[in-house]
Specification:
Structural class: mainly alpha
Number of domains: 1
CATH architecture: Up-down Bundle
Distance between the termini: 52 Å
Order of helices and strands: HHHHHHHHHHHHHHHH
Mean pLDDT: 83
Low-confidence stretches: 1-9
Helix content: over 70%
Number of strands: 0
Strand content: under 5%
Length: 412
């Protein structure tokens, strides 16, 4: 079958929507089954409390390995074939999760499904970079990051809804259906956006050299780390939200769901606003503004939490502070991603893979830290958020220093 390619540097709405649906696979598969952990502990692990956390570790390990491998492969084979292969792996692994009767087999199937799901994390970003740069790329990336940011917030609620209607295995049956529909849609409609003449020959030494080159490239690494630490902050909020809002602040499940929905709406609004501003305001300035506002909100959250003001006595204040932080992230991730890819269109797959590996590793790290900390106030969450925002500031300072050096070297 001949390879199809988009002939002009534009992306139609249907393709943006499809990339958004594919991007959603990772967050949905990560968080949708979290409400089922206690039941899965009983059925698969003989009642061993917390055992299901291992399945999440298997998933993140598969994502890291898959993204690291798929980037160079997609730079050699194009975007379409690896995406189809990833969807097949994700679907097969999800079938295994839906029918597995043993804990070890379930973990193995989660790892396999993550290897495939990694394609849906890496390749949409690479596809965007293939066909759009600058403000146009930032606008599309804002829409994809919107999906990536909102789905982890909504996925646990969707999982709880499924559990209300049936067995926890239904969650993975839904994942199978999603994977099959994605596979058929890509097979029928998705063109390959990477021209054959721009593809890079695959070799182990070449792959290592490309990754080493990206790691040594300070503008890429600083922007990639900014994006990754924004995910660190977002996943810190998602991981600790049930403990903070239900157990500490006393929210009912309904109130918790309403707040999650409102917060998702705020994130959507900010990401959409970012997408509309990129044609009028420089990406770097938008990124600076998003980080600056994040600092103000994070410092306020930390100070008021440590002072005992933001807590059970004033739950509305906690909600406002958290919403301000997550809203600011809508201006950080999309712009940092586009800035990271600016000079790496020829190896967008490898660049996206390295960024995704760092992103999911840091996101998993924030969840691991908060999963082992007792909550008597929102302070642990505020501290972790402050660490993430502080790292964003440090990386942004590094980015500006690199840009100043580059400008000075090109000055007459």
């Amino acid at each position: 079958m001949p390879t199809r390619r988009i002939p002009v540097p534009v992306m139609p709405f249907w393709m943006i929507a499809l990339l958004g649906l594919l991007t959603a696979i990772g967050p949905l598969a990560t968080d949708m089954y979290l409400p089922a952990f206690p039941i899965m502990d009983a059925e698969l692990a003989g009642g061993r409390a917390g055992a299901s956390q291992v399945t999440l570790a298997a998933w993140f390990a598969g994502l890291a390995v898959g993204q690291f491998s798929l980037g160079p492969i997609s730079d050699r084979l194009g975007r379409r074939l690896p995406l189809l292969g990833g969807l097949v792996l994700f679907t097969v692994g999800s079938v295994g999760c839906a029918v597995a009767t043993g804990f070890d087999l379930f973990c193995l199937c989660r790892f396999v499904s993550a290897l495939g799901g990694a394609a849906c994390a890496v390749l949409p970003r690479a596809i965007v970079r293939d066909v759009a740069t600058g403000a146009a790329g930032a606008r599309i990336m804002s829409q994809l990051m919107l999906v990536f940011g909102v789905m982890p917030i909504l996925a646990p609620s969707l999982g709880s809804l499924v559990l209300m209607m049936g067995h926890w295995r239904w969650i993975f049956t839904i994942a199978v259906i999603y994977g099959v529909l994605g596979l058929l849609t890509v097979l029928a409609t998705m063109p390959d956006t990477m021209p054959v003449e721009k593809r890079i020959a695959f070799s182990l030494t070449g792959t290592i050299a490309r990754y080493a080159g990206l790691i040594r490239e300070p503008v890429f690494m600083s922007s990639a780390l900014i994006n990754s630490f924004s995910s660190f902050v977002m996943f810190a909020y998602i991981t600790s939200a049930p403990m903070v809002f239900e157990h500490l602040l006393g929210f009912t499940p309904t109130q918790f769901g309403v707040f999650f929905g409102m917060n998702a709406g705020i994130f959507i609004a900010c990401a959409q606003l970012n997408g509309s501003l990129v044609h009028r305001i420089d990406l770097s300035r938008l990124l600076d503004g998003g980080i600056a506002c994040s600092v103000v909100a994070a410092v306020a959250c930390l100070v008021l939490s440590l002072a005992g003001i933001a807590g059970p006595a004033h739950p509305a204040l906690v909600c406002v502070l958290i919403s301000c932080i997550t809203g600011c992230l809508g201006f950080v991730g999309p712009n940092a991603t586009v800035l990271a890819f600016t000079h790496h269109g020829h190896q967008a797959g490898s660049a996206s893979a390295l960024m995704g590996t760092i992103q999911f590793s840091l996101a998993a790290g924030s969840g691991f830290i908060l999963g082992h900390v007792p909550f008597h106030s929102p302070a642990p969450l505020a501290v972790v958020v402050m660490v993430g925002v502080g790292c964003m500031v440090a990386c942004n300072t590094w980015r500006h220093a690199c840009n100043r050096r580059a400008d000075a070297s090109h000055a007459p």
